[in-house]
Amino acid sequence: MKKKTIRNKKSPKYIFVVGGVMSGVGKGITSASIGTVLQSKGFSVSIMKADPYLNVDAGTMNPTEHGEVFVLDSGLETDQDMGNYERFLNKSMPAVNYMTNGMVFKYVIDKERALGYKGACVEPTFHITEEILRRISESVAEMNPDIMIVEVGGTVGEYQNAIFLEAARQLKIKHPKDVLFVMVSFLPVPSKLGEMKTKPTQNAVRQLNSYGISPDIIVARSETPLDAKRKEKIAGMCGMSHENVISAPDIDSIYDVPINFDNDKAGQKILEHFGLKPKHKDLIEWRAMVSRIKHSKSTVKIAVVGKYFDTGDFVLSDAYISVIEAMKISAGSLSVKAELTWINSKDFESGKKKISILKNFDGVLVPGGFGESGVEGKIKAIRYARENKIPYFGLCYGMQLIVVEYARHVLSLSDAHTTEIRPKTTNPVIDILPEQKVNLKEGKYGATMRLGAYDAIIHLDTIAHDAYGIFLKKKDKLKKNINRNIIVSERHRHRYEVNPEYVEMLKKGGLVFSGTSPSGVLMEIAELPKKEHPFFLGVQFHPEFLARPLSPHPLFTAFIQAAINRKKKG
Ligand code: GLN
Fold first, then answer.
1. 283 shares a domain with 140
2. Which of 548, 538, 552, 542 is nearest to 468 (CA)?
3. Domain check: are 262 and 324 in the same one?
4. Average pLDDT over residues 312-317
5. Which of 2, 127, 144, 496 has CA atoms 20 to 30 A from the CA of 162?
6. In terms of residue numbers, what domain contains 170?
C-alpha cells in the first residue's frame, strides 16, 4: 500500500494589518504589497481578510455602495481586496481566507442552536475569538504559508472590528515572537496649515494600545513623502524606531507600492523582526512589468458601456476594479496603455449621447450587470460594434446581451429578451438556469447563483481558441490540451444562461459558440466568425477575476490586440 505523505506542517509568522485614522487609504494594497515583497524574498505568503460586516458574504452588497464583488474559485463572493491579494501574489486564495463578522457569528450561533457548546454560556470572547482563530489556523493548514498576513477591515476605534483585534491580541500572547502588527495610518496636510500633521496617527496608536496591541510598523499614507522630522515624531510618540515608520505617499500606479516598500526596506525589517533571512532578493519580474505598464506610450481607447456609474468617478472605478486592472495589465503586456472612457448606457437610451460616438473608440466593452436599467442602451452599443466591426468584448451580461441583440436584429426575433427582464417574452433566448428557479421562488438570494470555477471547452478554429492558444503562458495552470481543444477553468457569477432551446437556431443564424461546458449544455462563449468581424466575443464567465499582473488574461490581451489593430488601420 502506498504511504500517505504527510505535509510538513510548519508554524507560520503572522502579520496583522490594521487601519488608523480613516478608511480608504490603502490597507488592502498595503497588505498585498507586503505579501509581494516577502514572496519575492523567497517566502510563501497567504493573505486573509477579516471584514467587519454582518453580511455573511459580499454577494448581496450593492457594488455602487461597496465596490466590486470578487469571486473566488470556490465560488465565495468576497470583498474586492481578495482580488488585490490574488493579483499581487499571482495565486488563488481559498474560501477560508475571507471572513466577515456575519460569517463568524452565524457559525457560532448555528453551533449554539445545535447544542454544539454543550450548554455553556456562549460569549463574544471567548467563543467568537476562538472561531476567528480557528479560521486563521484552518487557512494556515490549507495554504501552509511561511507568512500569514491578516488584514483587519475598518479602522481602529470602531466597535465593529474590535473582536478581530481581540483575537489578534490573543494570538500574540500565545506566539509573542511570531506576530507582528502593521498599522496603516493617514497623515493629513490641512490646506490652511500647509503642514503634515501626525497627531491623528498618534491618537490612532493610542486607541490600538487600549486593545493591548502596539504597532511594530507604521505605514504612513500621505499625499507627499514623510520627512525625517515626522518620522522621528511618530517614532518617539508611538514607541518605535524611526526605521519602522514607512513613508507611503500617493503614487500613480498601485503596482509601484511593492517597489517603494522594497526600496524602503520594509520587507527586510519584517524579516528581521521574525529573525528570518531573505532567501533571495528580487522583484525583477514585478519591476519589469511595472516599467512596461509605465513606459507604454501609445494608447488604445476603450469605451466601457455599463450602468454602475451613477454616483461619480470614485464609485465606478471600485465597482469594476478587476475589469479595469485586467485591461491595464493586458495593455501593458502589449506595451500600450488602455485609456478607458465610462459611458452610462442609459445615455444611449435617452439620446443624451449619440451611439455613433462609439466609432471614435478602438474597442467597446460591456461588463457584467443585473436588472433592467440601461439594458437597451447596452444592446444598442453591441449592435453598433457588430455592424461597424469595432472590437467588442462582453462579460457575463455583456455576453447574454450579444445573444439578445443577435436574435433580435439578425434572426428577426424582435421580442427576443432575457427572462431576467421580460419573464413573459415569447422568445426567451436567455433564460434562468433550471436550478435557479427554486432559489428565486423561495427568496434565496445569498450565495445561490452559479458561482466560482467551472471548466469550459474551447473549440478549435475560433477567436477564443486563438486567444487562449497565443496568449496563455505555457506554465499557466489554466491550460490543458484535449484533442487540440483547450479546457480552461474560469470563474462564474450568474443566474441566467443561453436558453438551450435556441442554440441550434442561433448557430444556424451564424453565431458561434466557441466555448461550452464540458457536457455541452451551457454556452460559455459566443462570438462571430473570424472572417466576419475582427473581434466580437462575449463570455458567460468573468475572466477579469483571473487577470493578474504577472499572468495577463488571454481574452483581455486578444481584445486589446484587436483594438491595437483597429487603431493601426486608422
Ligand atoms: N444578470 C445576469 C445573470 O444573472 C448576468 C450576471 C452578471 O453579469 N454577473 O445571469
1. yes
2. 552
3. no
4. 53
5. 144
6. 13-288
Q: Is 396 a catalytic residue?
A: yes
Specify the number of domains making up the chain.
Answer: 2
Q: Of 143, 132, 128, 131, give the one whose Cα is nearest residue 85.
A: 143
Amino acid identity at 78: T
Instruction: Work out the number of other CB atoms within 10 angstroms of the CB of residue 160.
Output: 15
Q: Are residues 241 and 367 in the same domain?
A: no
Alpha carbon dihedral 391, 394, 399, 403, in 10-degree steps, equals -30
With a cut of 70, say whether residue 316 has pLDDT above it: no
CATH value at residue 189: 3.40.50.300
* Of residues 392, 330, 396, the one with CA closest to residue 361: 392
Average pLDDT for 147-152: 97
Residue linked to cell 466576419: 532
Residue 490 belongs to a domain: no
Q: Which residues pair with 527 in a beta bridge?
A: 512, 537
Q: Is 121 a catalytic residue?
A: no
Helix (H, G, I), strand (E, B) or coil at 56: coil
Strands (DSSP E) contained in 211-361 are 217-222, 245-249, 299-306, 337-344
CB 304 within 8 A of CB 369: no
Only one residue has cell 442602451, namely: 377
Q: What is the CA radius of gyration of the chain?
A: 25
DSSP single-letter state for residue 334: T
- Model pLDDT for residues 72-93, shown as the tens digit of each residue: 999 999 999 999 999 999 999 9
Mutate to test the pocket of ligand 1, among 397, 440, 522 (most ligand atoms within 8 A of CB): 397
Shared domain for 260 and 140, answered yes or no, is: yes
Task: Give pLDDT tens digits for 350-400.
Answer: 999 999 999 999 999 999 999 998 999 999 999 999 999 999 999 999 999
pLDDT averaged over the chain?
A: 91
Alpha carbon separation from 272 to 140, 144, 267, 277, 344 (Å, rounded): 22, 21, 9, 7, 50
The pTM score is 0.93
Of 325, 396, 417, 524, which residue is the catalytic one? 396
- In ligand 1, the atom with minimum distance to the C-alpha of 398 is 8
Helices (H) and strands (E) in the chain, counts: 20, 22
DSSP characters over 189-237: --TTTTS---HHHHHHHHHHHHTT---SEEEEEESSPPPHHHHHHHHHH
